[in-house]
Amino acid sequence: MTAKLRTAVIGAGRMGSLHSRIYHQMDQVELVAIVDQQLEKAQKLTAQFGGMPYRDPAEILDLVDAVTIAVPTEYHSLVAGPFLARRIPVLVEKPLAHSLADARQMLQLARQNNCILQVGYSERFNPVVQAMQRLHITPRFVEAHRISPYTFRSTDVGVVLDIMIHDIDIILSLVRSKITDVQAVGVNVLGGHEDIANVRLAFENGCVANLTASRLALKTERKIRIFSEEAYLSLDYLKKTGQMISKAANIDMVQWLRHQQGEDGQINLLNVDWTKLVKVETLDIDDREPLRLEQESFIQAVIDGLRPQVSAEDAIAAMELAEKIVDKITHHQWEGADSASISARHWQNKE
């Protein structure tokens, strides 16, 4: 291995461009190649960020120490396979694969060759999520909203696999309990897959989570609210801001209220300014680019030979839950209509 890790990006679309730019900016790596079937797209990016353009991933197998794969989901397994077989670490964009069968095959290949396989859930590296995880709270109720206008990207999958998958992954990493019930409804408006979905999850430990995702909204919003016995959190992924009302910071307020109770056990609400009484804390959140943090984490895992922060196992858990959600959407019964015509289609190549 050279002094700098030799890296490549496969796929010269929007995400490939972002990954190429970040590799170009990182000191510990050298971007040696960008690959795309449309060679002119690869040439355009190499002119900006360095490296050589290639049309076929097979051409770079002997040239790289690690690769990022940012091609359409249906090709993830096909493109990643030869690199995993060569024990070349792979960072693949989410979701891990187009089907659970392909995802499990990728994981098996990575395990057989003791090779790092990280999945690009960049929202896990959002400084908001990092700040939230440092609090080590136990969620009891979670509410997540992820909506945006139509982008005409990722039309090969529905909104569950396109954008809700981020919240699925984050909530699974926070709650860390088995799913006991899944309820979901979704509607496909512009194509063959759901464009809006609402989901309710129940966990074995009692936690409940509500998730809403839409790619037909008139605005962009990415928020999560978490209720626990330790604190209430309200976080904005987009603005990278967060506020917290914690039990520890408000214990004096609770005691003060008890002393305000009259003989009848009631409090004169006219004498209480609730806006000043409750202490609201602003979370300390770094304003760093999640995708850069993701790639730095990947490269560090490669250098140290460690398990990646977002592993293939994590991605498969999110995909398994996403499959259940899509199945619920598919089988939702609409009065007076053929549900198959307005609900999301079945997960492709389902086992």
Description:
The protein is an alpha/beta fold. It has 2 domains: about 5-120 and about 290-310, Rossmann fold; about 125-290 and about 320-330, 2-Layer Sandwich (Dihydrodipicolinate Reductase, domain 2). It is built from 11 helices and 14 strands. The strands form 2 sheets. It has an 8-stranded mixed beta sheet, with helices on one face. The longest helix is centred in the last third of the chain and has 19 residues, at about 310-330. It is globular and about 80 Å long. Mean pLDDT is about 90; it is low at about 340-350.
Topology:
Layout lengths: L4 E6 L3 H12 L3 E7 L3 H11 L2 E3 L11 E4 L6 H10 L4 E4 L6 H13 L4 E4 L6 H8 L4 E9 L11 H17 L3 E9 L8 E8 L4 E7 L6 E8 L2 E6 L4 E6 L4 H10 L13 H4 L3 E2 L7 H15 L7 H19 L8 H4 L9
Parallel strand pairs: 1-2, 1-4, 2-3, 4-5, 5-6, 7-10
Antiparallel strand pairs: 7-11, 8-9, 9-10, 11-12, 12-13, 13-14
Helix pairs in contact: 1-2, 3-4, 4-10, 6-10
- Predict the CATH topology of the largest domain: Dihydrodipicolinate Reductase, domain 2
Rounded to an integer in angstroms, the radius of gyration calculated over CA atoms is 23 Å
Number of strands: 14
How many structural domains can be distinguished in the coordinates?
A: 2
Q: Give the averaged pLDDT, no decimals.
A: 88
Q: What is the N-to-C succession of helices and strands? A: EHEHEEHEHEHEHEEEEEEHHEHHH
| Tally of alpha and pi helices | 11
Strand sequence of the main sheet, in spatial order? 8-9-10-7-11-12-13-14
Termini separation comes to: 39 Å
The proportion of residues forming helix, as a percent range, comes to: 25-40%
Q: Can you summarize the main beta sheet?
A: 8 strands, mixed
Structural class: alpha/beta
State which percent range the strand residues make up. 15-25%
Q: State the shape.
A: globular
The low-confidence runs, each spanning 5 or more residues with pLDDT under 50, are 339-351
Architecture of the largest domain, CATH level 2?
2-Layer Sandwich
Q: Tell me the name of the CATH class of the largest domain.
A: Alpha Beta
